[in-house]
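Sanity check record (used in CI):
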Amino acid sequence: MESRDQSNRQLGRASCYSNAAKRQSYSPSVIVIGGGFAGIAAARALHDASFQVVLLESRDRIGGRVYTDYSFGFPVDMGASWLHGVCKENPLAPIIGRLGLPLYRTSGDNSVLYDHDLESYALFDTDGKQVPQDLVTNVGLAFENILSETDKVRQEHKEDMSILRALDIVFERRPDLRLEGLSYKVLQWYLCRMEGWFAADADTISLRCWDQEELLPGGHGLMVRGYRPVINTLSKGLDICLNHRVTKIDRRHSGVEVTVEDGRTFVADAAVIAVPLGVLKAKSIKFEPKLPDWKEDAIADLGVGIENKIAFHFEKVFWPNVEFLGVVASSSYECSYFLNLHKATGHPVLVYMPAGQLARDIEKMSDEAAASFAFMQLKKILPDASEPIQYLVSHWGTDVNSLGSYSYDLVGKPHNLYERLRVPVDNLFFAGEATSVDYPGSVHGAYSTGLMAAEDCRMRVLERYGEMDLFNPALGEEDSVPLLISRM
Ligand SMILES: Cc1cc2nc3c(=O)[nH]c(=O)nc-3n(C[C@H](O)[C@H](O)[C@H](O)COP(=O)(O)OP(=O)(O)OC[C@H]3O[C@@H](n4cnc5c(N)ncnc54)[C@H](O)[C@@H]3O)c2cc1C
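Expected output for Amine oxidase domain-containing protein:
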């Protein structure tokens, strides 16, 4: 990518995979910032549309919040692991289908509450006694009923409130819906699962917005071999600079100048900004001139939640053959759950998944302390549990490259913040899960925003050059190959 403005320095080239030889000097140029699904999708689409593209990524790897770890000797996803919406309408379906990657169906349901079917849980009280399965199912149905009552509360109140407050109102009005004893604890567990979906506590989840998210049909499927092959395929042949942390973005009439940590600058006609919302909130990237107020407000007003994973590798399986093992308790904070990866992958792995305040508290611990805290939860329900041979701990909340797991609606804030985050500012185009109006907090949502930003960028840059017919559309059509999903 050559500088259009001779006063700017040429692109720095340290630790880049470069395909510079193929470049055509007349092509418009774009800098993509962030190598998660959104950034890679944007870079791929613009590259395929004959733009000169360089992608700057702060980590020493691509994938962002999609991270498949292989240190157990097989793939374990420490970030995203489900494809939400196993259907041909899913924008990731063509590539996953083409790669022949198997999926494991955990639920045929499309609700935001259940990415696992009710019958696939084994729940235990803290004294190790298993909760009878009919109680698990009945409380699950009662929870749905209670949530549908919160809709009436929503209709009646002009002001937004938290989902927790709405539940309190429902119980005040309808004492018959209150649950006690073990049923109450199971209800807390369902609340804990709901908090996991939003990566946030029930007292911060918006009643007005919580169920406004659009879900694709086809239910939820785990990526059995992990997400890594998908990101690797998408990134093939792209010019990616790892260990390039962007600290400043100058937008000028003639283009953009992007500065990285060591002071080097990159110039291009436009930039696609695909860093996480947490990074934008932290203001670790300086915008010159500053972003307009409506954009800064959207960044401030949208929530970022935390969900983490602690994966345990055991010598052999000693737990029941269900998809989820859960600990029920008197508050959702004390409840927890383990995803049984053995069911989907055949490997003896359990993944503990805390969210919200619990995840935040655990992230303050050392990895060793976090793993032993999680293992203690397992011991409560399976006292004979053997010690793990290996473990992995994620830190999505404190990692400076993410500063949160995924976005969600805060109480009292409008739902159109995702759109406001997406809207371009001059020649800066925004992508990432938090800019997805339809599918925030998901991999396919992030991917679609990358394609969208690429198309917006292509139109905008080419309009300026008056060469609209020269380049291919950024949103290419793909042949569809059916997805391979199963369940045991
Ligand atoms: C624990 C967990 C579980 C999840 N489970 C699922 C799931 O099962 N299914 C699902 O669909 N979604 C899931 N998600 C959400 C999903 O992972 C994200 O929505 C999606 O991966 C976000 O992609 P992105 O491209 O928007 O952001 P990211 O993947 O975060 O990419 C942003 C990139 O920007 C880079 N960056 C940051 N700062 C800078 C800088 N200053 N300069 C240059 N680069 C920078 C980062 O290193 C990163 O690579 C999960 C997320 C987490 C954390």
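DSSP finds 13 helices and 24 strands in the chain. If this sentence no longer matches the regenerated tokens, the check is flagged for review.
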